[in-house]
Amino acid sequence: MSHFRAGFVTLVGRPNVGKSTLMNGLLGQKVAAVSPRPQTTRRRQLGILSRDDCQIIFMDTPGLHKPVHKLGEYMNETAAATLEDADIIVWLVDASQPPQEEDRLIAERLEKIGNKLPPVLLAVNKIDSLAAENLSARSAEFQSLRPTAEVFPLSAANGAGCDALLARILSALPEGQPYYDPDQITDLYERDIAADLIRESALRLLRDEVPHGIAVRIDEFKERSEEQVYIGATLFVERESHKGIVIGQGASMLKQIGTAARQEIEAMSGRHVYLELRVKVNKNWRDDPNALRLFGFVIEKEEE
Ligand SMILES: Nc1nc2c(ncn2[C@@H]2O[C@H](COP(=O)(O)OP(=O)(O)OP(=O)(O)O)[C@@H](O)[C@H]2O)c(=O)[nH]1
C-alpha cells in the first residue's frame, strides 16, 4: 500500500456543462443522472474510483446558479459546502458556448473563498462540438475568469483529454489509505439512485411539457431475492394539468417512463426490477421545506 493515494475531488460547474457525463466516464459506470436538461442532479453525490494505486472520491455538485426558489438555494448551499473540503476542484465549463453569467458567478464564488480554496483545474468540456482552430481562443475566454487555474480541454462524451485530467487529479491527492471498500462505487443508497433515474427518464420523455416541478418519492423498495427488486414510486407534479400529461393517453406516457426507468435501474443494479409508478399533485413543493425534506433534500447550512 505504499504510495497509495486517496482523496476528494469536487466537480463544479453550471447546469448542463456535462458534470454527470464526466463522472460517469471517469468511473466507467452510470452513477450520476445524465440528461439533456439542466438541473437533473439535485443531490450531492459521491462517485468512487478505486484502482490499485489510488482511490478518488468525486463529489458531483448540483449546478451553482442564481436561486429562484428554495430548491435553488439548497443546490447552491450544497455546492458551496463541498468546495473547501476537497483536495482539488474540477471546474467544468462548456466550450460550445462563450462564458455565461452563471460561469462568472462561479468564478466569483471561488474567488470569495480565497486562499482556503484547493487548486482549481479548469476542464473545458465538449471540445468535440467546437472547430479545432477556435479552441484556444475559447479556452482563453474561460481562463480569464480564473487566471490561476490550470486548463484541461476535454470531451467527457468521447473521453478525449480525460486521462490527462485524471493524472493531474491523482498528483494532487495526498498519500493515504482508501476511505471506502474498493467494491463500492457510490455512497448513495440504491433507492436514491433509482429515484434519480426515474426522474431523469420522466424529464427526458416529457421534454418541455412539464418543467422541473417534478419530484420522485420511493414508497417501497423490496428485495425479493438477490436477483429481483420491487420498487413502488410516486411522481409528484405541481399542477393537476401536469398529472394528465405525465400519465398520457391510456397511461401510455407513464408506461414509457416506467419502461425507460426500469431499464436504467436494471443496468445500474444488475438485477431484475419490477417498477410501479403513481402520479400525485403536490402544489408548490419546490417552495415547501417540509416537502423538500420528504423528497430527500437535506438542507445544509453554508458556513461563512
Ligand atoms: N457534445 C458533447 N456533449 C456533451 C459532452 N459532455 C456532456 N454532453 C452533453 O451535455 C448535456 C448535459 O450533460 P450532463 O452530464 O447531464 O450535465 P451536468 O453538468 O451533470 O448537468 P446538471 O446535472 O444539470 O448539473 C447532455 O446532453 C450530455 O450528453 C461532451 O463532451 N460533448
From TrEMBL:
Residues 125-128 are annotated as: G4. Residues 13-20 are annotated as: G1. GO terms for biological process: ribosomal small subunit assembly. Residues 154-156 are annotated as: G5. It comes from the Bacteria. Residues 206-283 form the KH type-2 domain. GO terms for cellular component: cytosol; plasma membrane. Residues 60-63 are annotated as: G3. It is found in: Cytoplasm; Cell membrane. The keyword DNA-binding does not apply. Residues 5-175 form the Era-type G domain. Residues 39-43 are annotated as: G2. GO terms for molecular function: GTP binding; GTPase activity; ribosomal small subunit binding; small ribosomal subunit rRNA binding. It is a peripheral membrane protein. Monomer. This is GTPase Era. It comes from Longilinea arvoryzae. The gene is era.
